[in-house]
TrEMBL record:
Keyword entries, A-Z: ATP-binding, Nucleotide-binding
Name the UniProt record assigns to this protein: Carbon monoxide dehydrogenase
Pfam families with a match to the protein in the record: CbiA (PF01656)
Signal peptide: none
Amino acid sequence: MAKPLNPKDEERRKKLFEIADELRERTKKQVPEEGFRVVITGKGGVGKTTMTALLARLLARDGYRVLAVDEDPQMNLAHALGVPKEVRDKIIPLNRNLDYIEEKTGARPGTNWGLYFSLTPDVRDVVDRFGVVGPDGVMLLVMGSVVQAAAGCLCPENALLDAVIKYINLRKGEIILMDTQAGLEHFGRALARGFKQAVILTEPTYNSVQVAVDAAKLARQLGIEHIHLVINKVKKEAHVEKVERILNELGFNDFTTKTVIPYDEMVEEYDPEIEAILTNPESPTYRKALELKDILLRYAEQPER
Ligand SMILES: Nc1ncnc2c1ncn2[C@@H]1O[C@H](COP(=O)(O)OP(=O)(O)O)[C@@H](O)[C@H]1O
Ligand SMILES: [Mg+2]
């Protein structure tokens, strides 16, 4: 039989329970029950994959369940996240997983599938079957990019990826980060339904700001509520001014938040891995990624802009 607690122990136990309750309360407030979804986009090379990986790892370290989705044509999110090579080598992106596409849509890409295949395949098993668990418990799903064609492509690959996005919108209790270069155009409303926040990255170059503005306008049109701009690889103050000038010239400067990240030798040196940054809290990129993570958590709780 357990010894009865003396009054001092009893007091201490009560205190501990109080602390535990408070912690639970705080976590409950922190983790939106629905979970939330963020799309990370911008021109090729601006730092999407690096930032997606940093956010995913930092959120996972905070104790959240994180699903990172790779739709970037370069498909190096696994590498950035720190998934070991042996595991990476076995990943088949969904858009090239001919067996799965055929199993789900009834048509095999590259064959003459005719007119009949399912546009609404049931992909509820996709994360269980193809998700890969990386460092800090981050779950990764490599989708591969949509087939972009002038008039859109009514093909089984895209039907499958569309269904995956729709399915992802229904997943609860986790934070979903999607790394994509051109996904906003393709997934459009399907994406906006579940994704309430966008992180748009740009460098201090005209072209990348232009791409960022196009993406931001589209995101706004779609009704994505919070659009965060990241001005990345900034070498001097004048670069921020330049980006501001271009934004104003292009007639769009309506971002929910802006984060400026300096050019960081260490990021480039270890590219595409971010492990060195995560183990070096002194790195400016680490600190800025923390800031951005907190911004996402904060705005996840705000239904309106
Ligand atoms: N803040 C930064 N400072 C220096 N180099 C960076 C920074 N952010 C990203 N990079 C580098 O830029 C390159 C492109 O980054 P990446 O994340 O692959 O971009 P994207 O996914 O948008 O194509 C990589 O070599 C990466 O290490
Ligand atoms: Mg990338």
